[in-house]
Amino acid sequence: MTSTTVPTTLFSIDDLARACALVAARTGLAFGDRRLHVLEEGCLDGARHHGYIGEMQSHDMIAQYLDALETAETNSPIWDRLIQFLTIPETYFFRDTEQMHALRTSILPALIAAHQADRALRIWSAGCSTGEEAYTLAILLDQLLPDIERWKITLLATDLNKRALHHARVARYRPWSFRQTELSLRHTYFAPYAHDAPGAQDASAAQEGDLYELNPAIRRMVTFAYLNLAEDSYPSTTNFTADLDLILCRNVIIYLPIDVTQRVINRFQRCLAPGGWLIVGASEYHPDIYAQFQLVRIGNAMVYCKGQGEEERRRERDEESRSVGEGIGERGEAAPIPVMEPVVRPTLVDAQPIALIPVRVDCASCSYNMTTALAATDTDVRSEPLSPEACLQHNPRCVYARCGLAKRAADGGHLQEARLFAQQAIELDPLYAESHYLLGLVHDELGELTEAVDSLRKALYLDPSLTLAHYTISALYQRTGRHAEAARHRAIALRHFGA
Ligand SMILES: C[S@@+](CC[C@H](N)C(=O)[O-])C[C@H]1O[C@@H](n2cnc3c(N)ncnc32)[C@H](O)[C@@H]1O
After folding, report:
1. Averaged over 246-271, what is the pLDDT?
2. CA within 13 Å, CB half, 305
């Protein structure tokens, strides 16, 4: 946030309302009360950067900046600056273990099997941010296709944030992007980037820590492009968003209001070939928005599949020819819906719907907190402010409340449900150590010792002061014969207790 030198009183309530409406109309991004300050700071930054605010400051300057935004195209420098400020490009490789498992073991193998004849796959990472998601798909395909050079793979990755797209094309990443990546994969597909190599331009990076550069062959598999999901430029053959086998749009629609989300999902449905797949973020499931899709559970991941009934295919063709003209479905025969195991219709608990809200709300200012989450019991359900449900009603993205649900489900012996809630909490905020700690406890209860250790290590990586995590991991190590590590964590826990 660079605009602290500009007094925020420059912005009137009307200016703010106008900015809000303008940004929502152009990008779909919605700003609730709690994040209005971000919008205000973004506009002040843009107004200053583009010379609307100088030495002399007045309300008129903000109005002129907003006028300029209004008359400019969304794909233009004045909007680019604001969008960079307002979007949240948080992402990392192999994000969401369950979804990665579903892709690796079921969805991609099924698509590969279905396309043995034409050896063509068409995939889109929509809202790709700095590219980790698209490159993860490229790496998975590289692993699954021994004859990859004989395949025609279209891997499109798009975003609204051009700075993120630039980063994606450069494909150099810091260790934090690999926080869920096996070390062996990093060694196989990335090389340490030598800052002092001839032609190396990222001089500042040398002081900021390690960078790893992606193998050029994988980098070439992905095409990055600007695409605004709030506009109706898709599906279209001209930008490769038609006749797709798979769309990943994860942790994007969570920032959009429900009407925009519905339009985006409807367009995705038309972008997909019959039998194609849509994967959204783990906290972006909704009972109504995806009504035209079949909800499929693969392991612990929920994904959406477009059916391929004759009636549906006919309606599809009609809609496509109306909306994008000739050329869609060039690849001829539709791939059959892949048959895979285990795929079951979700039960009510599995498919626990989560209300979508337009904006990310800062949990730190939420009335619920971790102490209450950990103390939550069945009786709390009725008693505000301790009930996670009550909290989620006013803040559906509250990580603490979701941890509370996980804790309560675990206490009630509903371990699968507890695991799902803990995973949702992690998806909402991967950097919140306590969610990993809770997931570790649940894995332990389920007898999943490797996963338990993994989660507890993540918790301790994020917050080494978590005494109980030291204690629990010490017990786990003890049980699995790793006595030295057990002793080390026990000693740390005791030190924390002051013993
Ligand atoms: C949190 S990142 C998600 C990255 C990746 N999909 C993942 O799950 O790790 C959200 C991305 O959505 C992009 N985004 C937000 N609104 C968008 C829009 N209207 N059109 C295209 N991209 C958008 C943002 O710029 C940001 O890079």
Report:
1. 94
2. 26
Domains of the chain: 8-86 (1.10.155), 97-344 (3.40.50.150), 363-497 (1.25.40.10)
Summarize the confidence of residues 444-456 as an average pLDDT: 89
- Mean pLDDT over 470-479 rounds to 90
pLDDT greater than 90 at residue 203? no
What are the backbone angles phi and psi of residue 156, rounded to the nearest 5°?
-95, 140
CA distance 494 to 68: 61
Q: CA 223, 229, 231, 232 torsion: positive or negative?
A: positive
Q: Are 423 and 393 in contact (CB under 8 A)?
A: no
Residue to substitute in 103, 159, 253, 278 for testing ligand 1 pocket (most ligand atoms within 8 angstroms of CB): 159
Q: What would the two tokens of residue 185 be?
A: 């994969």
Give the Cα separation of 220 and 238 in Å (integer).
Answer: 20
Ligand 1, closest atom to CA 161? 25
Binding-site residues, ligand 1, Cβ < 6 A: 27-29, 87-91, 95, 127-129, 133, 159-161, 164, 228-230, 250-252, 255
Output the pLDDT for position 306.
93
* Start-end of H helices in 359-466: 370-375, 388-394, 399-411, 415-428, 433-445, 449-462
Ligand 1 geometric centre to CA of 11 (Å): 27
pLDDT number for residue 8: 54
For residue 378, pLDDT beyond 70: no
- Burial grade of 494 (CB within 10 A; 0-12, 13-18, 19 or more): middle
Confidence of residue 213 (pLDDT cuts 50, 70, 90): very high
The predicted structure's pLDDT at residue 286: 72
Distance from residue 438's CA to the centre of ligand 1 (Å): 28
For residue 227, how far is the Cα from the chain centroid? 17
379 contact partners, CB below 8 Å, separation of at least 6: none
CA distances, 392 to each of 212, 366, 369, 400, 432 (Å) = 39, 10, 12, 9, 17
Q: How far apart are CA 433 and CA 415, in angstroms?
A: 20
Q: What is the pLDDT of residues 306-351, one digit of tens each?
A: 986 544 555 555 554 444 333 333 443 443 333 333 333 322 223 2
d(CA 193, CA 200): 9
